[in-house]
């Protein structure tokens, strides 16, 4: 990670930690407030359910007592006593009395518990009722208790939880009336509506008898998940109301409440805190980025300038303003690069002076060599003339020939030096590479005796961007050197091939080759291994290659002659590399 990134991250963390430290206690306080409020509401809901269950029990006991005093029951008892036997239609009479009094369970019983008439289970008439027959022994009249009662339903006889009560009726012996209200899904829904929450009625073995909920679907669950996520209620609390003896209840009613209103408030506050946290972190990150940019911009400038210096650009400078130690570092760097540039310029000047001194020394040496035979020839002519020798014409002819040959040698040395010192800039244009290779070989229509010329030009070679005359001069020099290296004959090979973004021209011979010690010096001015050579041909050839953006290299494997490779960039690549392209 960069220094700028580290500073921005540090600013973000410094802003996030205090905000997060504030968020945690606020979240816990909201959770405790929600728990306290929810518990109070849940206690109120449980009290409302208990009150409603008590009202249902009182309703059941009142309806049973009312029926026990009703004239129709007295008439029923009187008719039954007068006949001395049960009436055939007596079994269905309870069903007629049950509905108008709001009862779901109703039975008229003999003192021994046998059913005289049953509204919820007519088929039990004449048989003992094990569920309601023992009520007089278990509870006093006028008090409702929970019982699981069998009731006829659409799918047959099914158990139902009911609040039942009993009352003594008329007759001799007196009848007993037992009845009550069933805790069905509809009544569970009424209980849930009273509380605004959820009500589940379970039997003693935990089986759900009836259940209903007044909570909103979907969104409520979503708010609850958010509340649990941000530290609200860990679970949905509930209150349990036993039905029957507390030590062995017949059933129980579970009451639970949704606290979505407060949960929304808590979540809204938490989301606001999270928004503030995110905004604070973002603002701190932005501030950190600005501060980091001010701090690191000079350092990044230094890094970029150092990379340019490493690449050889000593003109690189850091233009970013900075103060303090960083500013001093920037100024020191700029001063250092300026000193390096000046030092390199002085070194280049010194190298140029040294190079020209070496060239002058070599040139003086090359000029001095022909001057010696010229002076000796002149001295011999003078002596022969002064002595009046008879063979003076022959001596004169030989001396003037030697002087003329040495003068021509001097002229060649001066011409080569002039070309080396004043080589014109290349006038480049697109030249087909195949044409260059063919033109060089065309200058040698007949190979020297004993020399075999081999040509290997690849098809479809791209054009090169070159000065045709200068490149021809290089290739001709290489071919002549190859022929000179094979005075007794051999094989001359010219190859032209593509080499990436360049075209390579290889000129090889099968001569004696170049000694390893001389291989690195063959391109030095005035270095030559040929008798009468000036040592400037290959130096001029390399200079031409380099001014074309190419290269000239030499190789000489032991026993395999010498190979010179001229590489010139193809026209498209040369245009891409040109300044401003």
Automatic annotation (TrEMBL):
It is a multi-pass membrane protein. InterPro entries: 2C_sensor_his_kinase, HAMP_dom, HATPase_C_sf, HATPase_dom, His_kinase_dom, HisK_dim/P_dom, HisK_dim/P_sf, Sig_transdc_His_kin-like_C. Keywords: ATP-binding, Cell membrane, Kinase, Membrane, Nucleotide-binding, Phosphoprotein, Signal, Transferase. It comes from the Bacteria. Residues 293-345 form the HAMP domain. PROSITE patterns: HAMP, HIS_KIN. Residues 119-140 are annotated as: Disordered. One of its GO terms (cellular component) is plasma membrane. Its main location: membrane. Residues 362-572 form the Histidine kinase domain. It is found in: Cell membrane. The keyword Cell cycle does not apply. Residues 1-20 form the signal peptide. Its EC number is 2.7.13.3. SMART domains: HAMP (SM00304), HATPase_c (SM00387), HisKA (SM00388). The keyword Nucleotide-binding applies. It catalyses: ATP + protein L-histidine = ADP + protein N-phospho-L-histidine. GO terms for molecular function: ATP binding; phosphorelay sensor kinase activity. This is histidine kinase. It comes from Anaeromyxobacter dehalogenans (strain ATCC BAA-258 / DSM 21875 / 2CP-1).
